[in-house]
Design brief:
This protein is mainly beta. 6% of the residues lie in helices and 36% in strands.
Amino acid sequence: MSIPKTTDEWGSAKEVTSNWFKFESVGDKIKGTLLSKRLQKANLPGYQDQWVYELKIANGSVYNVGISCGKDGTIQRLNNCKIGEIIGILFEKEGEAKKGFKPAKYLKVVTFGMDETYNEMDEAEEVMPPAEM
């Protein structure tokens, strides 16, 4: 169902870009304050569940970083990090491709200590009623 347009208010709209960080090439990295972590169940057959780590980078932008539950070592290291800690994740190298599969991505997890400016109350999500369209 479409709502009839009464003004040209949509003409000046800008599309909101995805906030998912993807490790595509060796050397890709992200550094930021860990705001939250959650388990996300796979919604397609053949895909693994993933842990999603929400990071706030230096410019204030917030990114979701999804790590497959098949990456036990990476998940274990990330789950040792505390909310409010500045962490970095680096796509360090690729493994050999096994027949029928893409090469494994080796991720390195580093910490820079607790973010002295982090305030749990500042990062709390406020639930607002949906605005009228």
